[in-house]
Write the C-alpha cells for this entry.
Amino acid sequence: MAQEGAINLAFGLSLDRPGPTADSGGDPAGARFWERLLVRLDGHADLLTLADPFGGATSGFDALILANRLGPLARDIGLVPAAAVDWQEPFHVSTAVATLDYVTRGRAGLLLQSAPAAAAEAVGRLPGFPEPEGDPAQDRRDAALVIRALWDSWRDDAVIRDAASHRFLDAGRLARVGFRGKTFSVLGPSITPRPPQGRPPVAASAATPQDLALAAETGDFVFLASAALLPEARKAGIAAPWLDLALGAAPAGVQAEIWSGSPADLVARIREWRAQGLAGVRFLLRDLGGDPAVLTRDFIPALRSAGLWRPAPELNLRDRLGLGPAIHPHLLAS
Amino acid sequence: MTQKQVIIGAQFPGVNNFTVWSDPSAGSQIDFSSFAHFARTAERGKLDFLFLAEGLRLREQKGRIHELDVAGRPNTLAILAAIAGITENLGLIGTLSTTFNEPYSLARQLGSLNLLSGGRAGWNLVTSPGAFTGANFRRGDHLPHEERYERAEAFLLAAQELWARAGEDFAVSNKHVRIRGRFNLPGAPDAGRPVILQAGDSETGRELAARRADAIYSRHSRFEEARAFYADVKGRLSRYGRAPDSLKILPGAAFVLGETAEDAQERLKEIRRQQVSPRTAVDFLEQLWNRDLSAYDAEGPLPEIDPDVDSAAISHGRANAYPDRLKTAREWRALAEAEKLSIRDLVIKVTARRHFVGTPEAVAREIHESVQAEAADGYVFAPHLTPGGFDEFVATVVPWLQEWGSFRRDYAEGAGLRGNLGLAA
C-alpha cells in the first residue's frame, strides 16, 4: 500500500491487438509504437503491466522481451511484464525479471499469468510441465516459489573481488535452492546475481472468488476484476488488493470494473473502496489512442489533487508499493 | 578490385578466467551500465554485432561453486532486448541452448527480439550437458547425450517453421518436437526469423552448419588451421545448393594493443599472468588431473602422480573435456620439462587463445590480410576487460580497416544483422 490515505496506480496493457488510431502512431509490430506509448504513460502511474500472449490466438510480443526492450527508456514508471509461468522455465523467468530489475535499476516486477488451454499443445505435453489431470494450483505455487527462491540464491554481497585470495565470489554466500516438487525440481543457484530490489514485487490476478486463495498465496499484490471481490479478498488474506478499471468498456476477453463516470466521481468512489481495503487501481487500456490522453489529462490529475496518488520517482517499486526491503533470508536466521 | 569485407563481432567478456576482474579498470559484470558502455562502443566502431555466450548453471569444482573467475550474468534474451533499446544498427547475437529451451517459447522470444530490434537478432545454437545443467530445468537430464545434435536440428527446423507461420496455425511432429497451435507473433511471415550461428567443429557439426547455419563461430583462428577449416566448410555448401558467401566463418579470437610490437608483447604477458593467477593455474590442472592438487605450488613443477581416471569428474560446467587424461598429462609434463615451465607457465601456455598482438596498424593489417587470404570472413573478439575492453580497438584499429576499404565507414540504414553480415535477406 502507498503512503497514508493514498493508493498506488498502474496502467495495464492487455492482449487486444491495438488498432492504429490518429493518436497511436505507427505499427504495433515494431518498437516505435510501444516506445511512444511508454513516453505518454511515464510519470503518470507507479507501474505498467504487460500481458503475455503465450498460447493465445491474438498476436503480440513476449512480455518479458518487450519489457526489457522498453526498460532503458522507462524514466520513472515501473515495468511489470506477465509470464505464463506454468508453461515457462521458472529458471529463465527468474533470470529475465532479475535482468529487468538491473536494466530499470529497481523498478521491475512480475505478473503471474494463466495461459489458454492451447498452451499445453504449443509446448508439447512434456514431462516436467503441468499434467492434464494435475492440480494447476500446485504448479502455479511451485513456479512462483522457485522464481522467488532463485532471487534469494545469491546474497547481495556474494561478489567479493578479493585480490589476496584471487576469489571473485564467496561460494558460502550462494545457496542451492534445492526445490523438489511433484512435477519438477530446480537445484540452483541462479546464474544471475541478486536483483537490486532483492525480490521484485510479484502480482497475481483474481477474477472470481475461487481465484482468491491462490492469488493470496502467490502474489505480493493482487488485481481484482470486480469491486464485489474486495470484501472477500480481505477475508482471503490478500494484503494489497487492487481493482482493475476500464473506461467505458473492458478490453476484449477481459473482466474489469467498468467506469463511465467523471474524474470527481471516481475520486469519491475510490475513497469508498479505500475504506474496504483497496490498495491500488490498475487502468486497463483499451483504446490506445484515446485512453492515455483521458487518463493523464483528466483522471490522474484529479486523483493527485485529492491526495489519492503521488508519483514517487525516487523510490524503487517495492517501496512504492509499501512492501519494505527484501531482507535476505540469511539475515533473518536466528 | 574491392576488398573482401571484414566482419567484426564484439563478445562481452564472459564468465571464465579470460576476463580479468582484478584490474582497477575492471567494471561490473552485471550492471546495465557495463552492457550499455560495451554496446555503445561497438556501435560507435560500426562493428557488425555484439555476442553473448551462455551458461545455465554456475561452474563447480570438487562439489563447490567455482570462486576464482567472474560469475553472474543476465538472462541472454532479456539483456539483448535492453541493448536493442539503446542501439540502432548493432547486431545482437545470443547463445541459447536447444537442450533447455522449448521451440514455441524460444521462437516467440527470439522473434520478438528480432522484430523489436529492426531485424538485428542472431541465435548461436548450442547444446548443454544434460546431467549437470538439467538440474535447473523442468525436464531434467532428459536427452541422451548422443541425441543432442539431432534434437538441435529438429528444434531449429521447428523454430523456422514457426517464424514462417507468424499469425497462422502450425503443427510439427517428429521424434523430438510434437507441437501444434497458433504462432501468434506479430509481423509478416519470416519477419521474426533471426540469423543462425553454430559452433560446428566435429564432422556432424560441420555438416549441420553447412546445411542450416548463416555463420559459424569457429575455434580455428591460427592461420593454417583456419584456412583449412574455411576451405573444408565452404566446400560443403554446394551440396546443399548454397553459395560460398552464404555461410560466414568467424573464429573467436583476442587482441592486445601496444605502442610498439614489444610493448604489446609485454602487455600480453602481463594480461596472461592476470588471467592465470597461481590459484587459477592449480585449479585448471585439477580439471585434468581430476584430483585435489591444492598442496601444489603453482610456481613449482607439475605433479608426478597421474590423473585419476577412475573417479567421477570433479569439475563441471566447463567447455574443456579430456578424452584421454593420461595422454594429455604426459604431453603437458613433456612440454613443461622441455621448456622449463612451472605449473603456472604451463597453464598460461596451453590455455593461450589466438591473440592478434601489436600496434593498432599491425593488428589491423593481420586481420585484413587473414580475411583477404580466406582464413576467415571476420572474427568474434573477446576482450579481457569489462566494460571498456573494446574502446581502444574501436578508436585505433577500425580506422585502418576503413582506410583500406575492408570495413564499413557507416552502417547501411535498416540493414539489420543480415545486412551487416552481407547475407541475402
Observations:
- Chain A has a mean pLDDT of 94.
- The longest helix of chain A spans residues 136-151.
